[in-house]
Amino acid sequence: MGQPLGVGIIGAGFIGRVHVKAARLAGARVVGVVDSTPAASESLAHDLRVDKVFDQASDLIADRDVQVVHICVPNYLHAQLVADALAAGKHVVCEKPLATTSEDAARLVDLAASAGLIGAVPFAYRYQPMVQEARDRVLRGEIGNIQLVQGSYLQDWLFSPDQGGWRVDDRQSGRSRAFADIGSHLCDLLEWVTGQRITSMIAELDTVTPTRPIGSFHTFEAAGEVEDEQPSAEVMKVDVHTEDLACVMFRMSEGALGTLTVSQVSAGRKNAMRLAVDGSAASLVFDGTTPDRLWFGRLDVNSEIIRDPAFLAPSAERLNILPAGHTLGFLDSFTALFTDVYSAIEGEPTARFPDFDDGLRTVRLTDAVLASAEQRTWVKVAT
């Protein structure tokens, strides 16, 4: 067996820490980390026992021991860092959105392809075993012709006007927040499960809190919750130009009608993602708060499919790393995704993972949502 892949993590926030843990569980060696401040970099390195702290992202990208660069920083930095990493001959795992504009995202797809390098975007919900089970049942025709798709993704981390961070600043996050952040996961998931594409959309967006704080705290933290924070010196408020809520109606490529609801201000909904697919023969529901179960409905009887390897499709069973009754979750999904990405980098056969094409796809869906909300009409999704 050869040496494990060396990965470098750019970004020390919540998701950067997830990447460090999942990369290790997937068999990679975390060479080092870097963040916007030495203190943040040192904190991550100390907490997760990473040996090397880089002074700048460019130093991490240039390091010869780093073969895969993971990008986990504010959205406006993604396009340039991805381009730099590809130019240095490194494979890339970039958090969504791949870029804040479809033009930049398309350019990155081309750059990765021309360089012959792997580019992945962590739409990790695909790697829940019961999501794969749902996809398998839909594609083999168990629910019949798809007639209706309903999705929702609700969070409450911005419920209070005192909550904020870089994501509420459109100069850092881009023109969309709630939809680009979590609506993109929902769109990727519903297209993955159904095997169809969203072709047109009509959207309404709303911002319920006009100003919010930004500063020294990360996503999911309220102002004043960070140790040693000095609000008067480090936290300022900005006008919010991105949405807290999104309600979308859409058509799919084979005619099904669908709805999406996205919120980051729904009290008590910590990370509630739900997908329902209704067909001519049956219906199914996946609820991310109970990830080991899949609801299956028929006219005469309903059933609940339990994550048990004895009864799952092979595509789902391969992701089933624990016995029935031992819950799999968020970190496990990232680990499974990274395992596939690293296998592809090493030239091994692997299942299809979400790549830069999928990243571009969700940027174009976000563009359609924004255009529809501005024009107050149906908008076709660019292909």
Walk me through what this model shows.
The chain has twelve helices and 17 strands. By secondary structure, the protein is α/β, with parallel strands linked by helices. The chain has two domains: 119 residues, 3-Layer(aba) Sandwich (Rossmann fold), CATH 3.40.50; 218 residues, Dihydrodipicolinate Reductase, domain 2 (2-Layer Sandwich), CATH 3.30.360.10. The strands form three sheets. Strands 16-15-14-13-7-12-11-8-17 form a nine-stranded mixed sheet. Strands 3-2-1-4-5-6 form a six-stranded parallel sheet, with helices on both faces. The chain has a two-stranded antiparallel sheet with strand order 9-10. Helix 4 packs parallel to helix 5, helix 6 crosses helix 8 and helix 8 crosses helix 12.
- Helical fraction equals 25-40%
Q: Compute the gyration radius: what is it? A: 21 Å
Give the N-terminus to C-terminus distance in angstroms. 42 Å
State the total count of DSSP E strands: 17
Biggest beta-sheet profile: 9 strands, mixed
Task: Label the overall shape.
Answer: globular
Q: What name does the CATH topology of the largest domain carry?
A: Dihydrodipicolinate Reductase, domain 2
Q: Give the full name of the CATH homologous superfamily of the largest domain.
A: Dihydrodipicolinate Reductase, domain 2
Number of domains: 2
Strand proportion, as a percent range, falls in: 15-25%
Summarize the helix and strand pattern as letters.
EHEHEHEHEHEHEHHEEHEEEEEEEHHHE
CATH architecture type of the largest domain? 2-Layer Sandwich
Average of per-residue pLDDT values: 92
Q: How would you describe this structure in keywords?
A:
17 strands, 12 helices, 2 domains, Rossmann fold, alpha/beta, Dihydrodipicolinate Reductase, domain 2, six-stranded parallel sheet, globular, single chain, 23% strand, 383 residues, nine-stranded mixed sheet
